[in-house]
Structures are given as structure tokens and as C-alpha cells.
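re the bet — no i am not wrong, look at it urself. input seq straight from the record:
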Amino acid sequence: MPTTGVSIMDGAKTTVKKLFIKTYGCQMNVYDSERMAEALGTDGYELTEDIGAADMILLNTCHIREKAAEKVYSELGRLKPLKSARPDLRIGVTGCVAQAEGTEILARAPIVDLVVGPQSYHRLPAMARGVAAGARLVDTEFPAEDKFDHLPSRPKPDQKPDRNPTAFLTVQEGCDKFCAFCVVPYTRGAEVSRPAARILSEARDLVARGVREITLLGQNVNAWHGEGEGSDWGLARLIRDLARLDGLARIRYTTSHPNDMGDDLIAAHGDCEKLMPYLHLPVQSGSDRILKAMNRKHTAQGYIRLIDRIRAARPDILISGDFIVGFPGETDADFQATMDLVRAVGYGQAYSFKYSPRPGTPAAERAQVPAEVADDRLQQLQALLTQQQHEAQSAMVGKEVSVLIEKKGRQPGQMAGKSDHLHAVHIDAADLPIGTVAKVRITDSKPNSLAGTPAIGHS
């Protein structure tokens, strides 16, 4: 049951309802979870890290990974004892699995009280009141109104002074690309861009709360185009206006599509100091035949030429990517074309996956590559990508880099943060204030991080 407390200010009784959110998958879900918590905060909920103390549990799901729905049902099975012990506990499923499964979740999991798609979480407070009254509710519509218009303002600085110095900010949602392997157009809908003024307003609020680095999010973030002062803006113009905010030290964006990487955005990487030298630009395959089967609408050589242009604008940029092996119809020659592309580009970081069918997508109906073949190809690809990552990290040893200090390190007397190139850096220092940008001399390269000591000066 919700706990009843006494207000120190006036002695009045107040009801405190505890909210636990488990976030799966992508960075956009991290942002969505924050906004859901803020929306429910208007209905008396506050976040807790203790799932056993929660009055409401939300599973904010992602449909990108393999067997996403089955994993959610397994998690719901683990929550059954909590629900049995506390019948008033409310359990909800949100996000892309909620969108895809809809009422099926209520049928398969009687412990679930509400199911909310990613375009409807601004309605959570009203739905929470409905389930408190005993209803079981589903909202997986694509509402005509913009959910961002109906969300509460971000908390004021004095309400949450311990804000992490990094933040995600969704600027674009949905996808019009319809890649043959992807469910996003079906679970997130068509591409929608938020107006520039609202993005800038939210960014100012974040900076006022102590945020030093903002990562702009979208399923196809570099396709963003929004109503701005005097004209329709593209992402490069938005980044340049964000860079004018006093107190904001760094800007990043993810995830991008090669077909939306325009000249102005490439130029911004060269002349906008606050735009970090890191770019996640998925390619998926190095075979033109497979790229066509994926409906990617770009070629391998076109992608390589694009990388060359980006590096000409910003020579020290670190390139990250996404790869799928074992896509239906992929031959040994197609896979070797992917390996050739990886060697030609040289990735500082990358994500690679074995293809798995997503129900409702075109590729799911095609003949599948044998699992053992796909497994072998994935191991070969990951070995090459890991080698390239280690080479990129080793090249940093002995250099001075800028690190945004985010938290205390795992070891006593240690601080941790991210470099310009998004490397995790552990620093032998206990007195670097969180939120500062420190100069760090790199002394060692670990499997997935760097180690260093403070150099002179930080800001």
C-alpha cells in the first residue's frame, strides 16, 4: 500500500506512491523512462530503486533484440510472487513490445494492469488512476496529439540538484525507411520531428539542472527537420543553436542513417567545437546485394565515400556502426564483402548481431541462413571489430584527452567519465568535481575502457 507521511512544512498528511521502472534496450527508452517518471510524478509517484517497495512497476520494453516479447513474459513470470503478496501492486508494460503485443499481454499475463505504447505515455497519469480503480487498460494508439505537448515540464534545478551531467533528449521519433529486418516503423510509427523551439527549451532546462552534455536521440535522428525561427531547420542548424547555450559543453546525436547525412551536417562536424568527434552510422552489410535485400537504399561504396568526406571534415572522428550477419540469402561472398568494408573503414566501436526474424517484417518470411553458419560469421566479424576497437584505444595511450567527469569510479580514489570519443575513462583522482571537463593523460587501455591520470587544468 502507498505509504503515508507527514509534511515537515505544515504537518499535513501526504501520500507517497513508489514507482519502479525497468528499462530495456535503446537510449530512447532511457529518455522515455525519465519522461514517464516525470508524468507520473504529477500523480504523486516518485522513483524507487527497491522493486519490493514499489506501488507500481513498469517494464519499458524494446523490440529490437531477439525474442524480446518472450523475455518480457519471463520477467512478468518473475513478478508473480510480488503481485500475489501484494494484490494492490500495479504492473504495466510500456514501449515497443507493448505496442506490438497489445491486448495479448493482458491475455497471457493476468498480473498486468496496463499496457502503453511509446506514443501514449503522456496518458499514464490518467491510466494509473483507472487501474487504481480496478480497471485493466491498453493504449497502443498513435494519437493525433503530440505526446510531448502533454508532458510536464522538466523538474526545476532546486527540485533535483543531483542531476547527472549527461542527458538524452529525443528530437525525432519513428521511421519511414522500412528496412526489411526492422520493426520500428510498426511500433514507433512514421517519422515525426519536434519543433526546434521546444527542443531548445528542454535543453535550457537540462542545462539549468547541471547537464553538461546532451545526446540528441531519434530512430533516424539526422532526418530531423523542424520548424525553427524563420525557416525549416535541419539537424546541423539545431546543433549550432544548441552550441550557443552557456554551460553546455558537449553535443552528440544518435542513431543516424547514411542517406540523411547531408553536407551541412558533415560541415558541422568540422566547425562546431561542441559537437563531439564521434559518429554512430550503421551500415548493416558490405554487400550491395544484401543491402538491396534489406531495403537500405545505399551502397557499400557510397557509404565508404561518405565516411571519407566526414573524416576530411573532422580527421580525428571515431566511427561506430551496426552490422547484421546471416541475413536471409547472405552468401560467403556477401559476408566477405562486409569484412572488406570493415577493413576499409576502420571502426573504433561497433555493434554486431546475428539476424533473427521479427514477426511482421518482410525478411521474416524469407529462407533463413543456417544458425551454425551465421554463428561462425558473427564470431569472425566480432573478432575483427574487437581488434579495431583495441587498436583505436591503444592509440590513445600517452595522449591528453578531455573527459567529462560523471561519477566516482569503482575503486577508491577514482573518478570516471567519458572522453570526447565516448571512451569510458577511469581516472586516478578523488577530487575532480562531477560535471567538470578535465584534461586526462591516458596511461593504459583496458578491454572496454581507458585509464589515466589528471593533466593540468579542467573547466
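see?? Residues 1-14, 158-162 have pLDDT under 50 and may be disordered. told u. also Residues 3-139 form a domain with the Rossmann fold fold (CATH 3.40.50.12160). so pay up
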